[in-house]
Amino acid sequence: MIDTQDQIQELIEKRQWKALRQELTEMDAFQIAEIIENLPDQEDMIVFRLLPRELAKNTFQHLSLYRQEQITEGLAHYTDRLSDLLNDLDPDDRTAFFEELPGQLMHRLLQLLSPGERSIATQLLGYPEDSIGRLMTPEFVAVKPDYTISQTLKHIREYGRDSETFNVIYVVDQNWKLLDDLRIREILLAPPEQKIRELMDERFVALNAFDDQESAIKAFKDYDRVALPVVNTEGILLGIVTFDDMMDVAEEESTEDFLKFGSFQDSIVSPLKAGISYLYKKRVLWLSILVFMNVFSGAAIAGFETTIQAQISLMFFLPLLIASGGNAGAQSATLMIRSLATGEVVMGDWLKLVGRELIVSFLLGITMALAVSLIASIRAPEIIAVVGATMVLTVMMGSLVGLLLPFIFTRLKLDPATASAPLITSVADVMGVMIYFSIATWYFAG
Question: Mean pLDDT, to the nearest integer, of 393-412?
C-alpha cells in the first residue's frame, strides 16, 4: 500500500491526470478510500473527482466522516456531481452521513436529492437518533405468497438490481405486512411451478424501527443472519438492516464506550486532525469534576493528621494501597460493562454477582496483602498488620464499587460506560484513604 500511495502522490505532483485515473480505476473502493485518508486535504479532492460515478459512490461509503465532509465541501461548486453522489449513495449510508452534519448543511444537501430519494432520506431521518430506523434501507426484494418460483425469479431479475442483498427474499401480504423471509437458496432449489406459500414456515425474526440499535446487534449475534427485516408496530415491512451496517454500529459503540471509560465526553474523530481547543473541550469537564472528587481524599488525609505524625511510615504505602483498590475496581467495571452491553448479564443478576465478587476479591486481596506485607516487613515491620488488612479491604471495596456502578448507571437510564475508570479510581481513592487510616488509628490506639 505504501508503494501505491507514493505512486499516486507522484502522479498528482506530475499532474498526469489520465494515468492517475487509469491507476485508480484498477483498484477497489476500499483501497482508494485508504489512499484518500492519507492524502493532504487538497489532494483528496483531486483523486475523488477523477473517479467514475459508481466507484466514487462506493469509495465515499468507506471514508471517515471527516473525509466525507471534506469531499462534500470540495464538491460544493460542482452541484451536478454532488447531486449524483448523494443520490447514488445507499439510503442507510446516506442517513448515517446526514445525521452527523449541522442542520443547515443537511437541509441544503437534502435539496440536491431527487424527489424520490429526498422522501426516503427524510423518512429515515425522522426516526429517533440511534434507532434501527436510522440504519435501515428500503432497498430489498419482497414477493407475495401466491407467486410461483418462476414468477419470483422474474420479479427478482426485474426489481432486484438495487437491492442491498439477495441472500434473503421477503414475503408480504397485500398490505405489506411481513409474513416470512426465505433464503435465496430455498427459492433457487424449488421447482418452477411451486408457490412461495409452500416454502413458508412463518418463523422469522424482525426488528422494530423504533428499537435501539444495540438490540439489533444482539439479534444479529443470536440469529447469525446476514440481514434482518425492519417493521413498524403493526408488522408492516419498512426496510432491512444488513450485517455490515451492524459491524459499523458495533465499532462505533465500542469506540464510544472506550472513550467514556477514559472520561471523554464523546468521540474524537482524530487526535491528529482535531484542533487544540476541540481536544481541550472534550477532556476538561470530567477532569474538572474528578479534581473536586479528589479533594475528598485530601480532606480525609488531613483528618488523620495525628495518626500520620505518629507513624510517618504509613505514607510510604498510601499510593500503593489506594492504587490497588482503583485497579481492582477498573477490572471489575470493565467486565461488567462488557457483559451488560452483550446481554450476558442483566439487571437482575447484580445480587448474585455481588456474592461472587466478594469471594473473588477476598482471594485477590489476600494474595496482594501477602505481597505488600513482605515489603512492609523490610521497610516498616511495625505496620505489617495495618497494610495487610487495608489491602484486603481496599481491593474488596474497589471491586464492589467497580461492579455496582455500571448497574447503578444502567438503572438510572445512563450509559454504564460513564462509570469510567477515572471515576471509579477517584471513589476507590477516597474509600482507600478512609479504610487505611481508620485501621491505623484503631490499631495504634489499642
Answer: 88
Residue 401 and residue 431 in contact, taking contact as beta carbons nearer than 8 Å: yes
Using alpha carbons, list the distances in angstroms from residue 134 to 253, 316, 355: 15, 55, 41
Question: Can you spell out the DSSP letters for 47-92?
Answer: HHHTS-HHHHHHHHHHS-HHHHHHHHHHTTT-HHHHHHHHHHS-HH
Bridge partner list, 168? 183
Cell of 236: 408492516
Which amino acid is located at 368 in the chain?
A: M
Give the model confidence (pLDDT) of 100-148 as tens digits. 777 667 778 888 888 888 888 888 888 887 788 888 888 888 999 999 9
Q: In angstroms, rounded to a whole number, what is the distance separating the alpha carbons of residues 22 and 7? A: 12
Q: Would strands 237-242 and 142-143 be described as parallel, antiparallel, or unpaired?
A: unpaired
E strand or H helix at 30: helix 29-37
Beta bridge partners of 131: 212
Measure the CA angle with vertex 340, ends 336 and 343; round to 5°: 135
Residue 389: pLDDT above 90? yes
Task: Report d(CA 421, CA 412) in Å as an integer.
Answer: 19
pTM of the model: 0.49
Query: What structural domains does the chain harbor?
Result: 2-126 (1.25.60.10), 142-251 (3.10.580.10), 276-445 (1.10.357.20)
**What is the rounded distance in angstroms from the CA atom of residue 272 to the CA atom of residue 409?**
32
Q: Are strands 168-172 and 178-183 parallel, antiparallel or unpaired?
A: antiparallel
In this structure, are residues 429 and 360 in contact, taking their beta carbons and an 8 Å threshold?
no
For the chain, helix, strand, coil in percent to 5 are 70, 5, 25
Rounded alpha-carbon distances, angstroms, from residue 288 to 277, 282, 414:
16, 12, 20
Closest to 183 measured CA to CA, from 198, 199, 197: 199
